[in-house]
Amino acid sequence: MHCEYDNDTFFQQYAQMSRSREGLSASGEWHQLQLLFPSLEGLRVLDLGCGYGWHCRFAAEQGAAQVLGLDLSRKMLEEAAQRNAHPSITYRQCGILEYEYPEHSWDLVVSNLALHYVEELEQVYGQVFHTLQPGGCFLFNIEHPSFTAGVGQDWLYSPEGEPLCWPLDNYFKPGERRTRFLGCEVVKQHHTLTQILDGLLKAGFVLEAVQEAQPPEEMMNLPGMLDELRRPMMLLVKASKRG
To answer: Model-level pTM?
Structure first.
């Protein structure tokens, strides 16, 4: 994650989001992502970009023997320690690219909405493959390429303020995208679908599942949620390392 998350104004706005206040139950993708997790009993789990630690707590409560949550943001980790502490969980301030990735040390590596902040995606794939046990699993949620390639990552609006369409440009030009999020400028990295999926195959992974996240029916009455069906925002991917 980038240091925007330690900006006081940004972090205060982030803390007001429903997924920040209520956790996994308020995340529109959770009903799909949860089903992709393997049985966690006795597993060692590494969370890259753990944020508030919701997925770390889920793993621990499902019986994981050891959970390590990494995040670059000090403020995120302070919240994680307060909200989602557990005897099986250790939180550590560390960037995704800076972690040492010891060989054959983890059974599951999970990352939720963090990899679109990383330019060197292939490097991460190689490091994750190295640190997974044979038979281990890599499960992540990344912003969908059609979202990160969106112009300003926002709708084109009518004069009345209604979203008309989602403009997309420079899709095949990966790299830095600057956008406004929660009132602040945030730097993200656009990756094409080929980079995301073929990169896993080249790293040695076997693809197990690829899903585009859709909000559940019970959330459709929330403001703006119907518009989330007009273009995908998140891509859920599960890959495994052969045993």
So the answer is: 0.92
